[in-house]
Amino acid sequence: MTDPRLRHGRASLAFSFFSQGVAFALLVTRIPAIQERYGISDALLPLFLAAVPVLAGVGSVLTERIVRRAPVSAVLRWAQPVVLLALLGLAAGDEMWQVAVALGVFGLSVGALDASMNMLGIGLQAAYGRSIMLGFHAAYSLGGIVGASLAWAGAHWDLALVVSYLPVVVVLVPAALVGSRWYVGGERPRLGPEAVKGGDDGVAGDGGRVAFRMLLPLALVMTFAYIGDSTVSNWSAKYLQDVLGSSEELATVPYNAYMVTTLVGRAVGDLGVRRFGAVAVVRCGAVLAAVGFAVVAAAPGAWTGMAGFTVLGLGLCVIVPQTFAAAGRLFAGRSDVAVARLNVFNYVGFLIGSPLVGALGDAWSYRGAMLVPMALVLLTLVYAGSFGDGSARYGVGHERPRIADVGRGGNRV
Question: What is the largest CA-CA distance in the chain?
Answer without folding.
Answer: 63
